[in-house]
């Protein structure tokens, strides 16, 4: 039930959804004699609120803060006991419908493991990803991740595929149950840079320290804003904020549930 509620909350907090809900409420009140003025104010405030991120790249600046939280390690230890890849790069429903593996813009989660695995043949490999969809739980991302590695010529038998997890918390706990890591072991965690803080927090909370290896960057990492950053794109502004809002709410929710060790984990 909590999984379904979290998915519904995520849908309702999409910036575009909130925009249309607010405009709809304002327009509806505009037809009321008693509340017409309130309706006009709601519409005006909503349009102003949408205009700001359309011009000022708030989405990019907040994404930079998330992506810079955990830098790429300049080097890794000579010996690595294991590498964990979080799911989120494969669309299992679309893959099932089309009969071939369909990747999204987080595909580097999958590919980044390959050179690391070849450099560290001693490392155990885990891919963790079931289905994060509210429905269609029968289609598992791990199934198509395995097919992806097979298609590109990387031996999938080297990898343990965990296919029951639905969120980052379950990625961590189910992977731990498979790996049974011992104290002192060195494990590397691969996921998107903007998601790394929440992921590392989940692994730390269950007593499994990992080395963060962020991939799938969406920003250059430049923190200082400039005039050249300004634009006019309502779709980009609202759509871009969806990622950071989702991740911010995820960090808050996970902390309240005790699934992370701090609100915004850091190295």
Estimate what percentage of residues fall within beta strands.
Answer: 5-15%
Classify the helix fraction into a percent range.
40-55%
Tell me the number of structural domains.
Answer: 2
Radius of gyration equals: 21 Å
Strands in their spatial order, largest beta sheet? 3-2-1-4-5
CATH topology of the largest domain: Rossmann fold
Please outline the major beta sheet.
Answer: 5 strands, parallel
The CATH class designation of the largest domain is Alpha Beta
Low-confidence parts: none
Distance between the termini: 33 Å
The 3D shape can be described as elongated
Number of strands: 5
Characterize the quaternary organization of these chains. single chain
Helix-strand topology string: HHHHEHHHEHEHEHEH
Given the structure, what is the number of helices? Answer: 11
Mean pLDDT: 90
* CATH architecture assignment name of the largest domain: 3-Layer(aba) Sandwich
Task: Describe this protein with a few key phrases.
single chain; Rossmann fold; 267 residues; 5 strands; 2 domains; alpha/beta; five-stranded parallel sheet
In short:
This protein is α/β, with parallel strands linked by helices and 267 residues long.
Topology diagram in text:
Elements: H1 2-12, H2 15-30, H3 36-55, H4 58-67, E1 82-86, H5 92-98, H6 108-111, H7 113-119, E2 124-128, H8 141-151, E3 159-162, H9 168-179, E4 187-192, H10 196-205, E5 211-215, H11 234-257
Parallel strand pairs: 1-2, 1-4, 2-3, 4-5
Helix pairs in contact: 2-3, 3-11, 4-11, 9-10
